Amino acid sequence: MAGSSPAEYVTHHLKHWASSEDAGFITMDAWHIDTLIFSTVLGLIFLTLFRIAAVRATSGVPGKLQNFVEIMVDFVDNSVKDSFDGARTFIGPLALTIFCWVFLWNCMDLLPVDLIPHIWAQIYGALGHDPAHAYIRVVPSADMSATFALSLSVFILIFVYSFKGKGVGGFTKEFLFHPFGPKLLPFNIILNTVEYLAKPLSLALRLFGNLYAGELIFILIALLPWWAQIIPGLGWAIFHILVVTLQAFIMMTLTIVYLSMAHAHEEHH
Amino acid sequence: MQASIPSIVGQMIVFAIFVWFTMKFVWPPITKAMEERRAKIADGLAAAEKGAQALKAASSKADDELKAARTQAQDILSTANKQATQLIEQAKAAATAEADRIKANAAADVERQVSQAKEALRKQVGELAVLGAAKILKREIDTKAHAEVLGDLAARV
User: Fold this and answer.
1) Binning pLDDT at 50, 70 and 90, where does residue A267 land?
2) ipTM of model
């Protein structure tokens, strides 16, 4: 903030409001309170909005909210229908939740970078703490904890759907003998392990990387003199509208694709 | 940049709850409403189709009825015409017959009167002849003896 060097400004902005001081890359005991609060609140906004529409849902002439919600549901339902040929009672809601939730997470990136941290610093100071140590990050998808939570959930679901679609035996057979055949079993295992691990990793890191980089650029733009911020800030924000939507869409689509791949009962060869 | 394991677990729990909520309370009512609306629209379209077909059938039926009614009217008209002509013919025939009868009666009357007049005249001529002869032959001629001759004479007149 004021009076600090650019490096300090940037690192301050990239530090979480955590339950304990732990600087490690992977921490076992520090909760990221900011990520939890913002993601939960955003999720509740999504659920409240959609629940209101669901309660008022009529098969007659729909209102504006219902129209919007129906467009979202229809869009997600069609995306699922395109690649998943099974009951959509679970995958549909899952995809809808992922899309809307991640979209709202990403939208937080469009808030001015200093707005909420500044307000938080005031509150933190008013509570009798040192405002210089008021850390907060408002974009949940720029925190690996949030993106990995999603991708690991999807990872678990991949196994659930594999077992459901192919049976435990079928899944094991495919894992051991596919794609090179039984004679090259070790290679099959190595390849499949890498393939399975790549799914949650790529899913989480893609979203995280995009939004983290976006946030970082906004922070760097904020370091410029105020008159020089307007053009790059505007440009990056406009470009970011695309990234926000696109990343939410990719997250949803890949989830559907992974689950339908897991579910598909196909005999190879 | 830090990944927090407790946050990941917490987020996963929140995520699970959100998905459960969406699955239970958001997705079904909305998809149901959409499905119902789709069915309604389909029903409406089918009903419109049916209505159009019914209209077509009704109008063709009306056409048929109209045609039948026209034919019937034509029939009635021609029957009535025929009957009228018949009546006229009958009346004409009756009138002619009556006229003939009256004419015949009149002719018979005339004949009878002519013969009566002839008879009367014959008698008077006979009487006159007898009277004349009596006057001429006053004495010698006996009325009774010459009545036969006079009667024969009167018949010849």
Assistant:
1) very low
2) 0.90
